[in-house]
Amino acid sequence: MEFASIFWWTTLWLLFWGIVGSIGTRRIYLSKDLDTSNAVLMGSLIGASLGPIGLLILWLKTPEASKKFIILPSLLTVGILMTAFALADPENNCVSNSSFVLSQITNGLIIGIIYGLMALGLTLIFSILGVVSFSHGEFYMIGGMITYYVTVVWFPGIPPVLGIMIACVATFILGAVFERLFLTPMYDGRIERPVEYGILVTFGLAFTLMYFVQAVAGSNPVKAKRFFDFPRIRLPSKEDPWLIKTSRGNMELFDTISISNPRFIAAVISILVLLGLLFFLYKTWTGKALRAVSQDREAAAIAGINPHRMNMLAFAMGGMIAALSGATLVQAFSWLPHVGLIPAMRSFVIVVLGGLGSLPGAFFGGIIIGLVEAAGTGCVPDPQKASSYIPAYGMIVLTLTLLLRPTGLMGRRFASGTHGKL
Amino acid sequence: MTKIKVLWLICFGIVGFFLAFPFIYGGRDYEYIMHICITAFFYAILASSWSMLAGYGGQFSFGHMGFMGLGAYGTALFSHYFYLSPQPTGLCTEFAFGDKYFIIKNPIGVTSSTLTQDCLTKAIENWNGSVEVTPMPIILGILIGASLGALFGLLIGMLVLRLRAAYLALFTLGFSEILRATISAEIDITRGQAGIELPHLFENGVVLFGHEFTKTDKIPPYFVMFFLLLVCLAILAWLAQSRFGLFIRALREDEDAAAALGINIVRYKVLVFVITCTMAALAGAVQAHYIGIITPNNLMIMQMSLVVAMAVIGGLENFAAAAIGAIIIEFILELLRNSFVIGGVEIDMTIWRLVFFGVLLMVTLRFYRNGLITPIIHFFTRAHVAAETVAKRTRESSSNLIV
Do A207 and B308 lie within an 8 Å CB cutoff? Predict the structure, then answer.
């Protein structure tokens, strides 16, 4: 336990110089009449990684805040934290056990892709309607619930893909109907403060859906069967160490990395959907129209795109994407009516981290959050507490983002309407 | 008699009714009705302070229940862990405080074998009743709980209120969930899901008007909660009609314009956030002492959605309407508790009533933007005439701009 103090003192040291760096750099850049938009982030990162010496050099030279000066110190900061942690707790699983670390990283990546997909739906809605949908988690929950009911209760034996598709169609219709009924008055000035109305009415939808599902389905946890069993494979077949070995519910790579089947399948489906979505957004007319509306509403309307129809499409598609990630994960986790809350919050964190309204930002943000959560659950010494604090890791990231770079990693500062404003 | 006088008469009538209610009501379910009243006042404080934040200030916080929980857990932990003793225990963390000793009990888990193993219980056993240990005064705990709410409100406000409305909603939603997760996980200190017990508001009974009330009597907490509600409403009324109220309404309508007119928008947003969070924490602390136990489930987002529904259905942009709405909805919620059977299918009303309120929330938002109670108040104050004129003008001017 005496080693643990190393970690805390290092964290304190990083925090202190990070704060000094962020405040001092802003002052100095302002006094020299330089661009401060990224200087705060750069100052705090250099302060945290290199301490007073780095800050002194930074303040004397005042270079322009470029990617080089942000990425290198941030990697260094993470490195210092990891070294301090390793020194503080050398017995810990995520210091001493390399296969555990590799497994955690792989699982973090896999779950990060799924998170990224879900956040993509939220950011799609935001970039086009300018509304943060607080019912996103409930769409996720409903997607899982419908898939469970279709594949297990109503039509047992149906191919799971069909169940997922039914869930998608149902949530798409639900999203479209809700948008037509409740969100249309936002667009033409019938509501005085559309952003706030959007927050409240989607929150109301979340409330209604959550209790509706609880009333219909009850509050006992349910879980769907595995969609797909791995065939038994062992490559190469005889030798030890193997490259890949699968049992029905699990897959092991290189004798070290273990991936559970439901997560793997969910990630594969997510990647396929993601590719399809990218194709849709960048290659089809409708997708291009969607992106056009998100960039400039008026210009898109002049070019012959009906922005109202795009609103409906965006909300329905955003909800459907959330439902899809729910549908793929219902085989991995047990499902309850209020299961959507934590994924919804995670999506918020991802979307803010990636930049509100940025599609690639949501994807990379998802992977970062996946890795952070994997590190958090793997490395916090008390495993029971580690898993109950899962939402807290995301919140730490969110707090840091809001403090250092509120626009997010890939946020657009000057987009149309209310979207780009902070 | 003008309409405004009628409104004042109705106000005094309502206050007078609630003042007299515990003495004139004599039904068999007296305790139950009183309990609903106290809970309704509690929700009225939450809903009216939330309407000040959201309706007047335009800042949507979904962490109001989290701040309520901060207040409740603040006072709960304070009264649970801190004691004054005339003699040192020699077992606990303690230091001299005047001629007494300030004792900090050690946190223990919730397993039944360790429930009585804390250092203070052992010390009392050793003393064999020769030393009288005094718990901390409850009012101090409540104040500490409220200031905890204020402190966190200040920190979160300074972090998030620089940004647009959606960020506050996102962050506070996360904050209350983290708080819930923390309280559930730190079982040693907070007892996790088992909940932590608190002393009653008047642990040793209280004498009012020559009548002695025991700690479980409903009348003292009823009046405590009712006066707390009145004080909160008075503060909100004063805030709403002062320059402060004008400022926050101005920044709700247009932040940039308000800033251009010289209002320090961040300061006023933080201020309104801190004030309303303190009220929530205060209400939570008092309610926790009244109920006698607080569990992390009280902080759940579902509770928050109830507060939102109450404020919106009552009238988001009028704190009095939100308070009345909360009281009415709390009573309706209780009335709707009875399940019934239609065509062999049992309808579990404990859940369906909440679905009903969710739908009502959305419909109110969509079609009665001012809520269901505010129009009644407006009928008397004739505020709708001014509002309609403003709306008509903006519609005319905006229809010229937007094609």
Answer: yes
